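User: Predict the structure for this protein chain, please.
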Amino acid sequence: MDTYNVYFASAIASTVVLRSCCGAAFPLFSPSMFNALGDQRAMSVFAALATVCTPIPILFWVCPLPEVVAKAAYSVVW
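Assistant: Here is the predicted structure, written as structure tokens:
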């Protein structure tokens, strides 16, 4: 939020669009996946994906990437 002052609304809008696209695509593939794998295994796939993605925010907090922010064209360097 603080890094991209002027373009903050565009960043939020892009995440909303991506989330909406994923939400629209999920009903297209989930019925066939649940039919092929069964309820327990299909839910295990989603549980594994969630477990793999869990440490990502913690990694960004522990190991920030200032060079990424410094190279960004529209970022505010403090």
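The chain has one domain: 8-71.
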